[in-house]
Specification:
heterodimer, A: Arc Repressor Mutant, subunit A, 5 helices, globular, B: alpha/beta
């Protein structure tokens, strides 16, 4: 476990950079985390995915897989990969300040 | 060798349910990790991308010790369908998509889906006989070009 600093706040993150305490996350941190993942600008569609990730995590205690995102977030699988080319579920989870989802599909 | 995989090319050579799914899950999972992925369907694996066959993929109920049923029972009419139906039902509960839908999803992730030219020639299949998401029918040489610099997995 280590720490990272986003929007001037120190937060706890796992070795691969995922938040270990999602309550430490704020919306102001998202653009900075995204930039480190190669996403220079968060569009409205990015935010739609981020808020879906947060809701899913709050409801289920785990982030959604790409399959679930594509079926229920209102953003298609194709678009998800355009928004988060390095892996939608994984990168969106990181930007949304939740732990890495562990689904296989 | 450093600790990351940047690209995988997965060869699917079998036409059974249990022969096809692992490759699809690995390709889809690779893309979810941001890894470039290609699927190359050869020999009976072509059934997975054949318009006529891809909705009728069955689990091998004979010669499959993993099923734990007697070979003679597995050979009875209707048993392959029954075992397939049972597995499909279990997979549906886990939200694992049926093969046609899974292939569409995998194509949407940006993975390349290819048919093997030698096998298509052997079975008399043309691009029209394959599902729309198939990018091309390619030779083994072209496959190696695509796979260059990455890992190759044969299933």
């Amino acid at each position: 476990m280590s720490t990272a600093t986003y929007a001037g706040q120190t937060v706890s993150v796992s070795d691969d950079g995922f938040f270990t305490d999602p309550s430490q996350w704020t919306e102001e941190m998202a653009p900075e985390i995204a930039k480190a993942e190669g996403i220079d600008h968060l569009t409205a569609q990015h935010w739609q995915v981020i808020s879906f990730m947060r809701h899913e995590y709050e409801a289920k205690g785990t982030g959604p897989t790409v399959r679930v995102l594509g079926k229920t977030s209102g953003v298609s699988v194709k678009e998800l990969y355009q928004l988060f080319p390095k892996g939608p579920a994984k990168i969106a989870a990181k930007v949304s300040g939740i732990p890495k989802p562990r689904g296989c599909i | 060798m450093d600790g990351t995989i940047e690209k995988v090319s997965i060869i699917v050579s079998k036409g059974s349910l249990e022969g096809i799914y692992p490759a699809l899950i690995m390709a889809n999972g690779a893309r979810a990790e941001g890894i470039e992925a290609n699927l190359f369907f050869t020999f009976f694996g072509l059934d997975a991308i054949s318009k006529k066959r891809h909705e009728h993929i069955k689990v091998a109920s004979v010669g499959n010790p993993g099923l734990h049923i007697a070979t003679l029972i597995g050979a009875l009419p209707g048993v392959p369908g029954l075992m397939t139906h049972y597995l499909e039902h279990k997979m549906d509960k886990l939200d694992i998509p049926p093969i046609p839908e899974f292939l569409e999803m995998i194509a949407d992730t940006g993975a390349g889906i290819y048919g093997c030219k030698a096998s298509c020639d052997l079975f008399g299949l043309a691009q029209d006989d394959l599902i729309d998401r198939v990018k091309d029918i390619i030779t083994v040489g072209e496959f190696y070009e695509l796979a260059a610099g990455g890992q190759i997995i044969f299933t």
